């Protein structure tokens, strides 16, 4: 007796998501003390944030229309297209964003000014059902909300923008000194947020690091170490250990990421 069997696959292969290991630049900009605004002013602040980001991108030669953006009320999270020049974002884009904010704030009373925190990292960032998955979106969220970054902006009354970049971007891009990047304008901080721990580098565009009113968070007694010399003695400072189904949507982190800090040592 002959038996004919027909096999029916349990799932369609084209429905199965493929892991995306493409490295992308990720950034997020958040409005300082957004909750101080009433409802009409919140609406206006969100519109100003969107315009400021778009204008800075266009003036830098970047196509903001190709950014995968995820507005979240008081912040904009964006994943940039593959191949976006990192030095252009850290250089011209940051410069134009700071200039645009400074020009706007110069015509406003203190209560009506808009100041931003901007965090930038590079790494795997794949589209997911509820936003983006991968280590880079999580790292950007942790850098953005680090107390050290908030304090840096709060204590620099003349600044309109504080920028924090990951250690890998500092080592690979900032230290190359292209596009006007100057390592001496950055201060190293150690960020520990939830399951994340790593070094970041903070800059206040338009503010002389030696003119700040208070020492940077975590700076040794007597003032901060010279960042360029510190970088020469330190190796990149964190190692990724595990990522589990991460995603960002509407300010909510889905899944978990585990980093272990590995302090750099001379000669290692």
From TrEMBL:
Chain intervals for the UniProt region annotation (Disordered): 208-235
Superkingdom field: Bacteria
Protein name: Guanylate cyclase domain-containing protein
Organism listed in the record: Kitasatospora acidiphila
